[in-house]
Amino acid sequence: MTTLIRIELLKIFRKWRTYIGFFAIGALVIIVQIALYFTGDNYIKAMTRGFQDSFIMVGNLFNGYLVANLVLGGLFIHIPFLIVLVGGDLLASEATAGTYRMLLTRPVSRLKVVTAKYCAGLIYVFLLLAWLAFLSLGVSCILFGTGELISFSGRLIIFSRDDVLWRFAGAYGYSMLSMSTVFALSYFFSSMVENAIGPIVATMAVIIIFIILSALPIDFLKDLSPYFFTSHMIQWSGFFNDPVDYKKITESALVLSGHIVGLYLITTYLFIKKDILS
Amino acid sequence: MSDQIIEVRGLTKKFKNITAVNNLDLNVYRGDVFGFLGPNGAGKSTTIRMLLSLIKPTSGSIKIFGKSIKENREEILRQVGAIVEKPDFYLYLSAYKNLEIFGKLSGADISKKKIMEMLDIVGLSKRANSKVKTYSHGMKQRLGLAQALLHDPELIILDEPTTGLDPQGMKEIRELILYLSKTKNKTIFLSSHILREVELIASRMIIINKGSAQVEGTVDDLLNMDKLTVTFEIDKLDDAINMINNSEWKEKMGSSSSREISFQLVHNEISSLNRFFVERGFSVNSIIPIRSLEDFFLKITEGDGK
Questions:
Q1: ipTM of the complex as predicted
Q2: E strands along B200-267, which residues?
Q3: N or C: which end of chain A has fewer CB within 10 A?
């Protein structure tokens, strides 16, 4: 199994499309960092305008933690597109290229093949998020230093500097669950078609439709909203609440985990039953 | 291990309303170069895909090395090398890397030396590190053969292996197949619609059409099933015709021209008639059998040869 996963990782990382995500995140984070480097003080002033008459703000409020928090919130809805570029390609590209015929005539079970690809895809998701964390948190802390974290989750919360890192760890960990769900969906679509474009478009269409439906101020749709996985993807921000609503986060994490496992099982079933005609 | 390498019984595959393979029986024995002939759309590739468990039969059974492919897929595939239709590779990887991947997946311990040896056999060692996307169709075909042979399989299934090759390349592949069969004692299952190819290298064959077997047997037997039109170019033609008219060959003589006489013969009569001329002092300049396996094949698939 390890050999299979290594082979799948080799295939993923020998394709240029794999690096689009890394370049895109790199470019976006650097641009945001440069912009904040020059205008960060204005941003803090704008954020705290309503409180300046009542409170005296002291300490280093514009720091690496704030930048990381802003980047995570800003990029979170765009990262799925970078995930599906690879997830949607994993199985469909083998069909497109005709390499299924080579791959599946080897003495390796289809279960192992589909599982190895799934694991390799999850490793890609992890590496992409690790890259995001490194740039947005690691590099930002080097550039802007550390300090207290101002968070606006309906209300202004200021976390002391020694109360921040574990929240980021939780948020990035939860992001891994959210993005893995996106990956699992694109992988599922990828197993059904012979062209990578279809899974990419289909996954993004599902995400966009669910987000739009959740956002519409219609009671019926509001009731449906908890059943959309997209509603649970944003729970990473719960780690920047005080107190943290662990019950809500756990429930959402379980919903996403269910999607990840469920989609894997369905994909595996379809793949094992599939006639290879490409 | 059984001497029957492939045993197929009542194999059927239906795609909705289309029957691609219909109640097919096949027998391939150890050491055979088995020709699997049929026109395009006859069901050859569908059969091969079922042999390799790429698609599931609607009904029927497949045994390879005496074991059901359904229950023993991995064990069987360890001993099988295959090209299914055109060989496709990971174009963004080098030939070497592709073979390394398929070698690892084959479960055998494939060394770097072995990969290079295989690339050398198919004439690609100098391009081992070039990405496959820079390869011509013929080079990919040869690389396909290399991946099929890489893990030294007992049974080699080749689906149209010479497609896209130039005449020299086709000859090389034919020679390689014969070498594998005769020297390495491999069993070869060769699908082709290039009939001359099968005629030259196969020991046994089956012809299928519209998913059904039309005829199965040794190539020699099938060649002798029907008469050939064989044209002899001989000197002293008038004397030769007179002599034929006074011999048992008279009934088999057909038309004649100023330099040639045609006969309706079965395959093993050609040498007898040649001997007949030579022993009587005639010079036979050429013998052209215009009834080849191709005629036979066309006749069978057109439906009047059975």
A1: 0.76
A2: 204-209, 212-218, 228-234, 253-256, 260-265
A3: N
Tell which of A101, A111, A117 to mutate to test the B interface (max B CBs under 10 Å): A101
| Contact list, A102 vs chain B (CB under 8 Å) | 87-89, 102, 147
B265 within some domain: yes
CA–CA dist A192, B303 (Å, integer) = 39
Taking alpha carbons only, the member of B169, B218, B280, B211 closest to residue B10 is B211
pLDDT tens across A128-168, in order?
Answer: 999 999 988 888 888 888 887 877 766 778 888 888 889 99
Q: Indicate whether A105 belongs to any domain.
A: yes
Give the pLDDT confidence of A182-193 residue by residue, as tens digits. 999 999 999 888
- From the list A7, A15, A98, the residue facing B88 with the nearest CB is A98
Q: Which residues of B touch A97 (CB under 8 A)?
A: 88-91
Residues of A in contact with B105 (CB under 8 A): 4, 7, 103, 106-108
* pLDDT at A37 exceeding the cut of 80: no
With beta carbons under 8 A apart, name residues in chain A contacting B91: 97
Nearest to B105 among A15, A106, A277 (CB): A106
> Which residue among A7, A105, A273 places its CB closest to the CB of B52?
A105
Task: Provide the number of structural domains found in chain B.
Answer: 3
Distance from CA of B51 to the nearest CA of A (A): 10
**Alpha carbon distance A131, B303 (integer Å):** 66
Q: A44 in a domain, yes or no?
A: yes
pLDDT digit string, tens, across residues B146-202: 898 888 899 999 988 887 778 887 888 888 888 888 888 889 999 988 777 787 888
One domain, residues B3 and B75: yes
pLDDT tens digit string along A6-32?
Answer: 999 988 898 888 898 899 888 888 888
Domain count, chain A: 1
Task: Supply the mean pLDDT for chain A.
Answer: 86
Residue B59 burial (CB count, 10 A): 11
Please give the backbone phi and psi of residue A243, each rounded to the nearest 5 degrees, phi first.
-80, 160
Contacts of B65 in chain A (CB under 8 A): none
In a domain, A278, yes or no: no
Q: Does residue A216 lie within any of the structural domains?
A: yes
Structural domain that includes position A244 = 2-273
For residue B72, the enclosing domain spans 1-79+154-214
What b-and-e string marks burial along B69-96, b requiring 16 or more CB atoms within 10 Å of the CB?
A: beebbeebbbbbbbbbbbbbbbeebbbb
- The token duo for B212 is 């059904």
